[in-house]
User: Fold this.
Amino acid sequence: MATEQSTFAVVGAGLAGAATAWRLAEAGHDVTLVERGLPADHEGSSHGSARIFRYAYPSTLYTDLVLRSRPLWSELEAAAGVRLISRTGCLDWGERRDPGALARSLETVGIEHELLSPAAASARWQIEFDSPVLWHPDAGVIDAERSVEAMVSLATSHGARLRTGWDVQRIDRTASGYRLYDAAGGTLDAERVVLCAGGFLPRLLRNTGADERFTAAMPRFTVTQEGAYHFPYRDGAEGWPTFIHKTEAIQTYSLPGGRDADFRGQKLAEYAVGRALPSAYEQDGQIDPANRERLIAYVKDNLPGLVPEPYAETTCLFTTTPSEDFVLDRTENLTVISPCSGHGAKFAPLIGVLAAHLAGAGTPAAGRAAVPREFLVGGSLGAASLRDGGRR
Assistant:
């Protein structure tokens, strides 16, 4: 079997990898995008039609990055000829969510919002609120699967090659760059490699031959298998927003389920409570019955506009760092991109721009110049930490 040649190998065709391949190919680089299954398939973190797009973060670092991402989403939608973000608005409440602090953050950057009393908010939405409520109407829902498909299509239209069913097991240094080894025996030689492997990254990082100082400084990646449930709307319920609710007892997020829920229900999940995995290779797709029962009880107590009987359920993967900051950095000609599937989807087109610059620059130092320092390995990663999980 002949070894394929490429200037850039991008590993992983989820949101981050597809965005990176698109921008590298658009810039005229020779790119091969490899994916262990199919782009946006269920074993990765970018499948399905429902991810939250929102602006509210306690740290203006992330709010500013959302503002930079939004016109890039519009560019992608125009280029692909498909709507990828549906505007629904978002609600934030609960003492651990601190809607007042979020409102101040939005005020700083000029994002439209309202801070409502629990009674005023309950009069507008079929939800029981236990704190003041932040409403920002420009939030919405990202169609993750179609976003991946659109960016892969744009990448290939600019000459990138897509290789599916290509499960990278090992990456070795060579005299001219790197050799990637597929589980089926294939090999690919590339001058530069960009790892966008999501929950598969922890295992792959151990088999890259990268500078040990770089990998030792990498923050610990935690991969969890989470449960998500679709609850039907009661008769007459419509126009549900996305929401995030955080208390000492429970932390939940929710959004209209879109195609994933046949457009008739709300997706609901707890935040980062799932079974920890060594990597995404160990996922089994099994729902935790205790998790299901907690969310049924939550709907009964807090969401009168939903029927407390899930009609569909699924699992998904979160990959997070201790600080919940992203990792975007490069050692020699190996670039690691982990926007952390707990909250990274909304930044995908911007991640592609940053990753392409980081990987394509003449030196690692030149590439890092455009990357927020919080995302650099061994830099000030974690300086803007939200250890209460407030970044979802």
User: Anything to note?
Assistant: The longest helix spans residues 60-80. Residues 380-392 have pLDDT under 50 and may be disordered. The radius of gyration is 21 Å. The longest strand covers residues 222-232.
